[in-house]
Design a protein that fits this description.
Layout (H helix, E strand, L loop, with lengths): L1 E6 L12 E4 L3 E5 L8 H5 L3 E3 L5 H4 L2 H8 L5 E5 L1 H10 L19 E5 L6 E3 L2 E8 L5 E8 L2 E5 L18 E5 L7 H6 L5 H15 L4 E5 L6 H15 L3 E3 L5 E3 L1
Parallel strand pairs: 3-4, 4-5, 5-6, 10-11, 11-12, 12-13
Antiparallel strand pairs: 1-2, 1-14, 2-3, 7-8, 8-9, 9-10
Helix pairs in contact: 6-7
Length: about 250
């Protein structure tokens, strides 16, 4: 698998985009920062989109992606029902953007496919397992596996004593680390993590599984990023593990 971070932040500016992950050029997880990172031809090569939850920074580019494709091919979205309901009510609603519920007049629809937490399915040659994560709205992370290699993306999540995803054994962990550690209480209240909670959850994972996966931190608030970078480097040293910050355009091979 070749995994590319199209967007790696909780915030946008000239150097940063909202979250979006591209796998092997045709499977996408979240579309916060997708359209500005891909050409129209690259957007047409996408076979399916997995959405983790309904927050704006993870779905922002859905209208633009649909617009690129709507005269040529459908846009398949895989998500939990709460996410689907929000997307249909607030984006594809014939008010902000065409609803695109069915093929008509030369325009292809957005198609919705139900994702059930804990129930694995096959998609585009990958084994996909959605796992419930703790956030301020219903959300799932995704384990993506192919050819004996796997990646788990937590999506947005707060620290838990024993998160469900630590039962998985990924080769690569992409995990949110939104705020620096002085904001630990605020981060937890908003359903996010800091380097302090990152270290705690990685130690919990190691106690359960006996190893530290390569860990890439994403969803950084740009205003906190330099402090987060220093704190994550300290976590990496204390654990003796490969823990680093992701960035736009970062490519990870499994």
């Amino acid at each position: 698998m070749r995994i590319k971070l199209l967007g790696a932040h909780q915030g946008e500016n000239r150097e940063a985009r909202f979250m979006s992950i591209l796998i092997d050029e045709h499977l996408v997880i979240d579309v916060g920062g997708l359209t500005g990172a891909l050409s129209s031809d690259e957007q047409l090569r996408i076979g399916a989109v997995l959405l983790t939850h309904r927050h704006y920074d993870h779905i922002k580019d859905l209208p633009g992606l649909a617009h690129t494709r709507w005269q040529q091919m459908e846009l398949p979205l895989y998500c939990i029902d709460d996410t689907r309901d929000a997307v249909q009510a607030h984006i594809f609603n014939d008010v902000l953007w065409p609803a695109l519920r069915e093929y008509q007049e030369g325009y292809y629809p957005v198609t919705y496919h139900h994702v059930e937490p804990g129930e694995a399915f096959n998609l585009l040659g990958y084994a996909i397992l959605p796992v419930t994560v703790s956030h301020t709205v219903p959300a799932v992370g995704y384990l993506v596996e192919r050819d004996g290699k796997s990646m788990f993306y937590t999506a947005d999540t707060r620290i838990e004593e024993r998160p469900l995803w630590i039962e998985q054994r990924p080769d690569l962990l992409i995990i949110e680390t939104t705020m620096c550690s002085v904001y630990e209480d605020e981060a937890n209240r908003f359903g996010h993590m800091t380097p302090l909670s990152l270290e705690r959850v990685l130690r919990t994972f190691h106690a359960r599984q006996g190893y530290y996966p390569r860990t890439v931190c994403v969803h950084m608030n740009p205003a906190h990023e330099e402090v987060i970078r220093r704190e994550v480097a300290e976590v990496s040293d204390r654990l003796g593990a490969d823990v680093s910050l992701g960035y736009e355009g970062m490519t990870l091979d499994l």
